[in-house]
Amino acid sequence: MAYKVTMRKLAAQEVKNRGEAVSKVTIQEARTKLAEMNLVDQFLFDEVMEYQDAFQAAVSIFMGKEIKLLGKAETEKEFRVSPELRQSRLDSVAADEKHVVYMMEMQKRDTKNLRKRSRFYQGHVDVSLMAPGTADFNSLKDVCQIMVTPFDVFDRGLYRYTFKGVCVECPDLEIGDGAWRVFINTKGKNAHEFSQEFLDFMKYITESTDRRAEASESEKIKAIHQRVKEVKQSEKTGVKIMQRWEELALERAEAKEEGWKEGRKEGREEGRTYEIYSLVQEGDISPERGAKRLGITIEVLKARMSASGYQYLEA
Question: In which domain, by residue range, is 79 found?
Fold first, then answer.
């Protein structure tokens, strides 16, 4: 029995050491990763949208009209109806001079659930906007939810899809509840319906480079790009992304340690498998590399990840 306990302690320490090594590697990689990020990457998007001028410029381009914000945006804002219920977290939230609340979220990969997710967000935001004890529902602020994706959620080839409550029997009758959802597809095909500024920004989102910014005559895009450069050069931002990577590495190390504590071979193999699932899901390694590590085909990897509750994100 003592032998087994000793072996488990040694195994746990080994996993801890390996976890620390992974953390050091990811810290070094994080600096390079930040420099290579584009606005389509959620981390960079959140950091840039903290600046009021960047948020204001972006939402104005998306909506095709000038929008003036009351103050800076709140990023990664959490909404929770009660402690027992699941919380929702939105990338960026801000209100304009007319007290319309704009919510923006960048979604790089197609998780196949954005339609329902936008509905989930809408419900949480509405509840959060009502002060406790308020009986006048007309006091609810208008809310515009904007989902930005480098893919077409609806496969209709449009750059922008705007949804408002419309009566089925009377298509020209809107419910007028002050809520609407907008989906931006950077790969749209109806270019003739949009300004050059909008089209330039669609390209800039997935290629946030000096070349793209300089090629556009838009002052808004140039202002956003200035913030992008500031974020990438910021020591504070570098520390933040390194901390995030460290947290992920620690979680993976702890998952390994739990597997070792079980003292069973299948537990260790399961921990390794789940670690690879997580790496593939987060985009840290390619599906091909993950499948190779596990000695299975990509099709089998996709099926097993789905069955285990992981998201297999298409490249």
Answer: 42-207
Name the pairing type of β-strands 179-185 and 143-149. Answer: parallel
What length is written for the chain?
A: 315
The predicted-structure confidence for 147-171, as pLDDT tens digits, reads as follows: 999 999 999 999 999 999 999 999 9
What phi and psi, each to the nearest 5 degrees, are found at residue 236?
-60, -45
Specify the pTM.
0.68
Burial of 262 (0-12, 13-18, 19+ CB in 10 A): middle
Same domain, 203 and 300: no
CA-to-CA distance for 155 and 183, rounded, in angstroms? 12
Distance CA 79, CA 65 (A): 28
Alpha-carbon distance of 254 to 309, in angstroms, equals 19
The token duo for 88 is: 């929702």
Cα Dmax for the chain: 77
Q: How far is CA 274 from CA 4, 256, 280, 290, in A?
A: 25, 9, 10, 11
Contacts of 31 (CB under 8 A, 6+ apart): 238, 242
280 against 143, higher pLDDT: 143
Amino acid at 12: A
- Number of Cα atoms under 13 Å in the Cβ half of residue 145: 23
Beta strand segments in the chain, E: 74-79, 88-95, 101-106, 143-149, 160-164, 179-185
Q: Indicate the SS3 state at residue 80.
A: coil
Same domain assignment for residues 173 and 145: yes
Which pairing describes strands 101-106 and 143-149: parallel, antiparallel, or unpaired? parallel
